[in-house]
# Entry
Amino acid sequence: MTTPAAEQAEALIAAADRLYQARDWAAALDHYRRLEALAPALAAQRSVPVIVGHCRIELDDPAAPDGGTVSGGFGNSERDLQLVTDLRVRLLELCYAGDFARAARLLRWLAHFDLSIKASYDRALTWERSACCDLLDTVSAPIEPPFVRELALSEAEVAAVKQRYRGTRLLLVSQRFFDDPARQHDLTDNLARAARGFGFELREINSHALKPGVTVDGWAADLQSEIIAFHPQLLFFTDLYNSGISRASDAVTEQIATVLEQVRELLGVRVVRSLPDGWHTVIHGDAQFFRGLGRSVDLLHHCHPTVLGRGTAAQRAATWCYPYPTSIEPPTVAPGSVPRGCFVGRVHYSSIARIAWWVEAAQAGLPIDFVIKLPWEIPRIDQPPISDIAFSNLLCGHQLGINLTQRFGGVCILTGRTMEIPLAGGVLLEENSIDTAHFFQPGVHYMPFETLGDLSRLTERLLQDPARRHALAEAGQRWARRYFSGDYFWAELMARLERS
# Structure
């Protein structure tokens, strides 16, 4: 039975939340403090200490917040998840308004509760100099990155494999993020474009959307019908068993697994399970990472060398690590016409560190433009989409292209920008990762950095060194076009399926 005091506390927190959502910081703060006095346990449970600190920052309280008396944090309720989203939106609003000082205070406050932000400040957002800066003072002799030793084919053999598999029917099951003629270079677009260029006959299915008249429970049967009608020799399924309809429920997952197992056995279809975010999948263990391999899947594909070496010998033999084929619109601006660096990207739940980099770089006065967007599902700030050509022009037109690669947990990964900046003819400066160093040579194809101090030194030196920028851009573009624009991807995939 609810007591009058509990009802009063719930009414007070509801009123406080309304005031907080309305940005009436002073009134909200008053209500939340009254709640802390009335029901301290409930206040802690509802993340009130976090909100109180935020309100004090918005009100320019010079003593806010006191890092020595931090308590509480975020819970897992729907309200707490919405609070996290609202705080991140607020951070972006402050950045767009140029209020980096307030944004910095809010970030440092949230670092007490958000491990991703804390990891950024502890590891990267320092003025220490790492060994990455040593590459500024040397001109490295070209050497082959580690992945070259793992290639199954020479360039001449790639052409032969392309000819041999011309006309192969490929069923591409993948997520499409956009329905916008000005944006035709997402992961699925690039896979499809490269497949057609390789000579495949292609049919697509959106793995995250239902066709009219098809239910979630009927999706596996519809997939089976598509396979029987098209009779593909190859089925490439991104995020299979990981997200979208293939993860809708245990029953649906098992139905899809059964269909794939049957078409492998009865029709000879070769099935590739591809994990765009394999670095995240391994968090759930090897059972999830290698799910279906040998039963419903012939080959597991991912693009994150940080997870190489996992699994049994048989699982490793059926796993292939290689970047997705990438293409961009040809830029229409002169390369390096803007004497600054530029970062273009989105901020979502796993890449919140990008806001911290933006704030601290701006506070330090670094000559870097940040073009940061929210995830598609958060239409909270009026942001016109960036067209493909505008995107290419940003990467090519700025003298330095910055890529921020950290995800939650502190892992730094290979991202789309790793390929796109060199392909656009830009100079890639990238937050140091094992992934990128596996596919590109640091100091030759790109320049890595680990700390804010590194980034400051690199931008200063490279903006003053057009010859070094030209050498990096030319070598990076030549390398990316050679290995990561399409033919090598599909040829290597087919060679591995031949061996399996």
